[in-house]
Amino acid sequence: MKGIFLGTGTSQGIPVIACECDVCKSKNPKDNRFRTSFFIQSSTTSIVIDTGPDFRQQMLSNKVKKLDAVVFTHEHKDHVAGMDDIRAFNFIQKKDMDVYASERVQLALHREFPYVFAKSKYPGVPRVKLHSIEDDVFQIGDIKLTPINVTHYIMPVKGFRIGSFTYITDAKEIEASEFDKIRGSEILVLNALRKSEHISHFNLDEALAIIDEIKPKKAYLTHISHLMGLHDEVNLELPDNVEIAYDGLEIEF
Ligand SMILES: [Zn+2]
Ligand SMILES: [Zn+2]
Ligand SMILES: [Zn+2]
Fold first, then answer.
1. pLDDT, tens digit, for every residue of 116-154?
2. HSE (CB half, 13 Å, CA atoms) of 189?
3. Ligand number with the minimum distance to the CA of 11
């Protein structure tokens, strides 16, 4: 399978509006970060994990022509705000978009996009078909996903394991039984906000401690704040098997 980091930035993105810091003013494209999202392409199926506010531009920049499903990790705006733009795929593919989300996230989608779920719909609104994610393995086309429950301060978030690949964003805690689901991952994507502590996200040291315990062949850090520092400088400080992801980075798994 192919994976593309569509976005690797925290909720504000980078550059942050009106910020004059070195990272926000950096000329290195790797320091420009859309809101966090990930694209997965198998031989038959393409899915996106989260549709943040940059979804439209992410689809355009990465020339995504077909999308079979959207999978949501949690209901924060930086992960769901772009759902309106799945309309483009409704029109081209002539069908409802399959959307996979926990019951809790589905409630939030009804709240945030009431017009999508209205009984009598305005013409042209997004058309979605909701599917519930619980704790069991679920399948989209030929992609089999195992949900991993993590905690983001007080909010539950779903991570996903697909074979030996694991994708976790917006986590601050992973309890032992869920942690066991990550063991044996060869490629591990984890959120790491910045170097200093944060109430709802792993910081760099916390993410590195988990990577050290799992010992994947390769780990990528995502959901990065401008406070993390310059991409190229921070990358040099990391262990050999760890890299800060950047927008557009493609991986195979
Ligand atoms: Zn987020
Ligand atoms: Zn900045
Ligand atoms: Zn969040």
1. 999 999 999 999 999 999 999 999 999 999 999 999 999
2. 31
3. 1
Centroid of ligand 2 to alpha carbon of 159 (angstroms): 28
The pLDDT, as a whole number, for residue 134 is 95
Ligand 2 centroid, distance to 245 Cα (angstroms): 18
* Ligand 3 mean position, distance from CA 4 (Å): 20
Which numbered ligand comes closest to the C-alpha of 25?
2
Smallest-distance ligand from the CA of 18: 2
Cα 69 to ligand 2 centre (Å): 33
Q: How far is the CA of 120 from the centre of ligand 2 (A)?
A: 44
The residue type of 56 is R
- Which ligand number lies closest to the CA of residue 150? 3
In this structure, the number of other CB atoms found within 10 A of the CB of residue 57 comes to 15
The CA dihedral of 48, 52, 54, 59, to the nearest 10 degrees, is: 10
Which pTM was predicted?
0.97
Of the ligands numbered here, which is closest to the C-alpha atom of 35?
1
